[in-house]
């Protein structure tokens, strides 16, 4: 991190970055208040300032996010995070006035303005902002809501970090001595190859999160309450309106995707039944679903995992491999297995520096290797967009998850083909099918839980017991009653439910998985020439809707179920192979 801003949370360079943003926001506000006529020249000037602030804000948010994730007890970083949120709210208020100015321009004048070469290159993004401004409150009310959100909405979201910092998990090591693990370390034990270890870890996981449910329930209720009240004042009826707009995706596309999954995920039932039989169980408990089998239990050292990923990337596209090598060599990846880290994994961008950073806790499992490939896919996505205007780099989560999942597929598919023996191939195949289970069932459960929670929240506060019940009901429905013990505390522990920048942080994962499946099938058909087409698609992700993106680069209609059904059906071949390879075991 010192390559970005030396000194961590006490960095002078970072303090200057924050001051620079505040100065830029003042300049933008002055331009907006000047009363100058809105023509191509004045809009171009304001847009240049806005894009400069946007790059700085993304960079600053990434910096404090990384500091907190690698040490949830870094109180100085937590304070900086609050300041970044404050600056973000000020920028949002300024951009609300900017958007309102665009909204006030007549259609004929707007067409003339977009003939300017610089502004024309941003026509999708500027027109999108102009149209969305028509669906919001008056600028002064949107600005007020943004200010109140700092210590309200976003403040409640940040409370998740406080809750996680209190989560201490007690386990015994091989010598019988007691150890305290962080949430990140403990989550890796949930996928241990030893069922006794998993059972013990899961019981401790549920115990600790259960002790924090009152705090978590209060936090989740406040986030939802703020969001619902804001939507009400904007005149929005559906809680999906904002997440669909953020993901540049129609509700018809979302419904077509879920419809295909509901029909096609039945193909996973024989896999879940066979895996339960292999474990000597009638049904898989929650902690069994992602547990490895066969040689997948081998612990892979970090350096070996890195080499393996790079080799598979190189076979698809040397440019992807070279970029990934740079990420490893220059220390862009925080993978240490140590205390005080946040659970989970992510990739975040530093667009001003042309760099990215990856966060995870690596313990040598097959799942860790998949996560690492996944996050490198995110990083490469940003890398190929670094030269685009700031607004055109603002791609949504669903297409972000397309790039990351595509990278995962490259690694898993080529690893299976290069497997040394059937045991290794089986382990890799099972890991691949697990991802389908995650996207068709786990993510589906999150979506069902969240939509039902918001409906319930409209009538008042939802208790922790009710949240547990909603979570378990969603899991049993999504997993088609194939679970033994469910995970009712899942809502408590999962960061995604507490994120305030991106509501409904669930269905975009499944979109990305299925869309990337279609892309990968096309890549196999076309061979090496597809790499350049893939980069072209990635570069368009910030300046087209997903429907436009699919039509332009794949020639398919995402609002029809056919594309999604074909993508879902690809899993059937993997399940059939798994059944053949485990017959009689």
TrEMBL record:
Protein name: Oligoendopeptidase
Transmembrane segments: none
Positions of the Peptidase M3A/M3B catalytic domain: 191-528
GO molecular-function terms, A-Z: metal ion binding; metallocarboxypeptidase activity; metalloendopeptidase activity
SUPFAM superfamilies attached to this UniProt entry: Metalloproteases ('zincins'), catalytic domain
Keywords, sorted A to Z: Hydrolase, Metal-binding, Metalloprotease, Protease, Zinc
CDD domains: M3B_PepF
UniProt remark on cofactor binding: Binds 1 zinc ion.
Keyword Hydrolase applies: yes
UniProt source species: Paenibacillus paeoniae
A Pfam family this chain is assigned to: Peptidase_M3_N
């Amino acid at each position: 991190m010192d390559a970005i801003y030396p000194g961590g949370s006490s960095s002078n360079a970072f303090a200057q970055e924050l001051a620079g943003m505040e100065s830029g926001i003042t300049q933008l506000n002055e331009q907006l208040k000047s009363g100058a006529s809105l023509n191509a020249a004045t809009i171009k000037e304001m847009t240049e300032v806005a894009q400069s602030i946007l790059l700085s804000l993304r960079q600053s948010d990434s910096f404090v996010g990384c500091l907190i994730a690698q040490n949830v007890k870094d109180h100085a970083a937590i304070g900086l995070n609050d300041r970044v949120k404050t600056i973000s709210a000020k920028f949002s208020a300024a951009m609300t006035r900017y958007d309102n100015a665009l909204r006030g321009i007549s259609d004929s004048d707007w067409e003339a303005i977009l003939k300017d070469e610089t502004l024309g290159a941003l026509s999708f993004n500027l027109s999108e902002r102009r149209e969305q401004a028509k669906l919001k409150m008056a600028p002064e009310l949107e600005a007020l809501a943004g200010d109140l959100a700092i210590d309200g909405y976003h403040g409640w979201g940040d409370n998740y970090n406080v809750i996680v910092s209190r989560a201490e998990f007690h386990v015994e090591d091989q010598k019988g001595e007691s150890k305290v693990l962080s949430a990140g370390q403990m989550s890796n034990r949930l996928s241990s190859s030893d069922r006794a270890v998993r059972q013990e870890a899961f019981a401790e996981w549920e115990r600790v999160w259960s002790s924090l449910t009152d705090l978590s329930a209060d936090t989740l209720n406040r986030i939802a309450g703020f969001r619902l009240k804001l939507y009400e004042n904007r005149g929005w009826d559906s809680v999906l309106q904002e997440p669909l707009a953020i993901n540049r995706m129609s509700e018809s596309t979302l419904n077509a995707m879920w419809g295909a999954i509901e029909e096609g995920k039945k193909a996973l039932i024989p896999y879940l039944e066979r895996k339960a039989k292999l474990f000597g169980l009638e049904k898989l408990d929650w902690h069994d679903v992602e547990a490895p089998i066969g040689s997948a239990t081998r612990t892979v050292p970090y350096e070996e995992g890195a080499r393996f990923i790079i080799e598979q990337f190189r076979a698809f596209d040397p440019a992807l491999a070279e970029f990934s090598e740079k990420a490893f060599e220059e220390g862009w990846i925080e993978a240490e297995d140590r205390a005080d880290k946040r659970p989970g994994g992510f990739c975040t961008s530093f667009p001003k520096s042309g760099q990215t950073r990856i966060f995870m806790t690596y313990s040598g499992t097959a799942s860790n290797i998949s996560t690492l490939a996944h996050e490198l896919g995110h990083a490469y996505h940003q890398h190929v967009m670094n030269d685009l205007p700031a607004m055109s780099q603002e791609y949504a989560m669903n297409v972000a998850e397309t790039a990351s999942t595509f990278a995962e597929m490259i690694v898993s598919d080529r690893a299976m083909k290069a497997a040394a023996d059937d045991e290794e191939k089986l382990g890799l195949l099972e890991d691949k099918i697990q991802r389908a289970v995650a996207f068709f069932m786990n993510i589906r459960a999150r979506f069902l839980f969240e939509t039902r929670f918001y409906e319930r929240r409209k009538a008042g506060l939802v208790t922790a017991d009710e949240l547990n019940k909603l979570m378990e009901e969603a899991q049993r429905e999504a997993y088609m009653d194939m679970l033994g013990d469910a995970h009712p505390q899942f809502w408590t522990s999962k960061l995604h439910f507490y994120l305030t920048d991106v509501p409904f942080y669930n269905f975009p994962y499944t979109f990305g998985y299925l869309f990337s499946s279609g892309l990968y099938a096309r890549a196999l058909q076309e061979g090496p020439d597809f790499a350049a087409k893939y980069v072209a698609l990635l570069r368009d992700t910030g300046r087209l809707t997903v429907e436009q993106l699919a039509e332009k680069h794949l020639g398919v209609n995402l609002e029809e179920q056919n594309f999604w059904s074909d993508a879902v059906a690809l899993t059937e071949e993997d399940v059939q192979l798994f059944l053949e390879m485990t017959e009689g075991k």
